[in-house]
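request received
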Amino acid sequence: MAEPGVSHTLAELGGEAAKSTVSEDVAEVERVMVEEGHGLIERAYGPSGGVGYLPLPSPDRREAVLDELAMELSRPDRHLQGGFLYLTDIVFSPRWAVRIGEIFAALFYPTRPTIVLTVETKGIPIALMTARALGIPLAVARREAATTEGPTLGLNYLSGTARRMGSMSLARRALPEGSRVLVIDDFLKGGGTMGGLLDLVREFQAVATGVGILIETAEPQEKVVTGYTPLLHLIQVGQDFHIERVKGP
Amino acid sequence: MAEPGVSHTLAELGGEAAKSTVSEDVAEVERVMVEEGHGLIERAYGPSGGVGYLPLPSPDRREAVLDELAMELSRPDRHLQGGFLYLTDIVFSPRWAVRIGEIFAALFYPTRPTIVLTVETKGIPIALMTARALGIPLAVARREAATTEGPTLGLNYLSGTARRMGSMSLARRALPEGSRVLVIDDFLKGGGTMGGLLDLVREFQAVATGVGILIETAEPQEKVVTGYTPLLHLIQVGQDFHIERVKGP
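response:
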């Protein structure tokens, strides 16, 4: 199956054709795309203000991708000393980042986010690809205030599991007031980092419209945050672990 | 003009057609694509081992994109206190990251890299999009050793301008021995960080086949490293600055 991944405005694809002559074609193209699970057509989308293609996977395709990913991540050679899971190659893989980003885009598209937010480092590729699939910008909170980004807004938070203080900051101009923020991260254990990100959203006078997590650990069962959507569960029993796809929605 | 950005294997696009029946179509499609500056067809490309589409921009398109980017980056409101240039929104923008990544991919495709390497944080999106356009993986060096990535190889380096020690590390399994490494970063001033990255490549028994830099500062003229390819120059005179596209190659 072809891997979707890029937004063309149909006005572009149609070359010099006037928009009114394209509209019937748009409806027909959309009918075929939705039937075949490739995505949907968005009117008045993108900087050109025309129509565009959002490469959103169908539920069937999403489940197939996540089944494959769960199997890949459950491989025994990903089990590191200290009970950690090696997923660096997956989250930095362009191929996986595109597919995960498109899944998040499809899940959160109805919430109409205007920007994606993540915190460095491993969440950046999937957050970037989510933003790309939705045609919106990305903001990245830093662990230390970057002196080269102008005025920043920072805060401290309590790590949910390690009981340590963490800090993060974001350039003032990176997140406009009133933004509808889709927060994306690769891993959620206790939820402390995500709690910090959500506090940061509020400090910027913005609103979090959704939270997408690639992998949520089953333990601890009680998290600092609620209302997030994980794609995968990490289930750890002693030194063994496996990854399961979260069923639905 | 349509923005290219994704690899479809032509075998996929052709559905169930046997590869041999597709090959004449491949030649014809390639002829048209190269003529129109959209990219080229790569045989035996990607995990499926078929043929694929590398979305490489033509020299004309590259110059147009870089002219637009130089103008955007020269805007006075990007001038921060302390003489810094605000480019966070650009390097984290999916739209710009895709276009910059495709330019690097086109420039370095002939050197046949097998992996892209960058160092966190701001270089990650353009490095990811370069890797995506080339159909190869990405490795990301960390400023501090990440305890969750298994054994790492780290080193210290002297920052070229600040005369400070920096450190970086990379998971042992992130960069296979013998890799042909395309090193990508967003900014080069003294070259100390890039020197560290190139040392890291050697420590992994790999070889750097190219170094791509988004913005190189004109000052200091003497850098710690040589042989890199910048796309833009930052020229700073007192408190004023502007960005120029590097001519050629």
